[in-house]
Amino acid sequence: MRALPVGDAALLVEVSSGDEAQALHAELVRRRAEGSLSVREIVPAARTVLLDGLTDPARLAAELTASEVPPAPPRAREVVELPVRYDGPDLADVAALWGVSPEEVARIHAGTEFTVAFCGFAPGFGYLTGLPARYDVPRRATPRTAVPAGSVGLAGPYTGVYPRSSPGGWQLIGTTDAVLWDHARVPAALLSPGTRVRFVGAA
Fold first, then answer.
1. Cα(3)–Cα(56) distance, rounded to whole angstroms?
2. Using CA atoms, how far apart are residues 12 and 37, in angstroms rounded to an integer?
3. pLDDT tens-place string over residues 48-76
4. H or E segment at 18?
């Protein structure tokens, strides 16, 4: 683990894997909730966690680098279910990469419980982990200029849902009508780091 100063009141903590980043994020959130950590924001990413609004970042950096990443706590009980139609334009390509039929891609994907590792790219976009490494797929060689809102895609080890229309290079395997981001909702984002997610096949 390595803690790098960012300005006067922030730290960027680097770890060796996505699983460690998720575990560290959960532990820091727990410490903040119990009052043993004073921090304004805790922002996880693929292999880092950013802490902003610290009063003594140097002390915390020394504490973190002298310790091991704690094991991930038990997952929350609530699971967000997202209805999905496995009708994406890249479904056949993903099936070929996996060496299975398109129907089997849908079965494997819907049979997996995902966890939101971190959020980014666009408001409401979560990077979901859960598929075994053998199902990693590359991004498209040529990104699309417009991916419809609600598109369910795969890229590397992640599954994601486009909350609004935007350019993108993920392999699209399905579509959901779930609203990922609604500024009138509290919270506005349906998915947040640590959220458990299941995709439920829809007609």
1. 13
2. 16
3. 999 999 999 999 999 888 888 777 666 55
4. helix 18-34
